[in-house]
Amino acid sequence: MTSNRQERFAGAGAVRSGQGFDSDSLADWMRAHVPGFRGPITVEQFKGGQSNPTYKLITPGRLYVLRRKPPGVLLAGAHAVEREYRVLEALGKAVFPVAPVHALCEDEAVIGTTFYVMDMVEGRIFWDSTLPGLTAGERPAYFDAMNAAIARLHGLDHQALGLGDYGKPGNYFARQIARWSRQYREDVEAGRLDDMDWLADWLPGHVPSGDETSIVHGDFRADNMIWHPTEPRILAVLDWELSTLGHPLADFTYHLMMYRLPPRIIGGFDGADLRALAIPSEAAYVAAYCARTGRTDGIDSLPFYLAFNMFRFAAILHGIKGRMARGTAASPEAQSLVDTLPELAAIARRTASR
Fold it and tell me: Kindly report the CA angle at 334 between 332 and 339, in degrees rounded to 5?
């Protein structure tokens, strides 16, 4: 499975049909907005990036990455690369591990859609959450580094970073359930699933009491990180499209789904021999996060949080299915993701029912 995902998602190659742009126009813009830029530019497209097409910009002096909105008709509020740029800029100032950003362009005349340019951070990416290629002796430190990173993110002062209006504080779960349920129901081209309908009805009535607000990543997984080539150190957390102000336990339990999903669903390793791999147990991983964030009572209502995140993830895959139907899916591997949608929705319903 690892080699399959590596082959499908790693690296960059030819720009896909319908997703190219005028590199001369981009070069003109970069000369004006990116300090030290010197052309010419050779453009390649990364295989990953299901939602926002992502490109490698090769220049004589350095490498850059460009993230853009996809061409075509877009759902309202989706593909908000402007938000990605804003949070990356703020987190860079907080010395949180993200790629340094250079500039945002909202003038669609330049390449056809809004985009931003950042440095390309080179390092190691693990496409399998069991972190293959590491020894059992090395692996615990990498899991601890992920745990520490998400705990640190949730401890940042969003007001001090200028992100006080980055999302609506409070009632995160109710708002997210409503948002993803609406997006799921309105995307008629993608069809409907009984399990998704059931979850959309069940979740609103089971939101735990209490509320908190922090910066949340929204897609915190091992394969959304660039690691130091030889050390258990995260150089950059990638893909902030779904980031907002939200409940930290929603973000952490999304990350925790790796323990509950099978390997054929991105990020999962359910069924792996955790002891042999020296991967901490789910309970130990939760305890480490709680210790770092001062949660002396642990995490109550874990089945709700997990079911919510599985529903949300399924709604994202449902959106990819809709974009495929409309001809705007950003990756040729979209079908392999969409194929897991029914199983993911079924697991979510079983998790909620427990």
Answer: 135
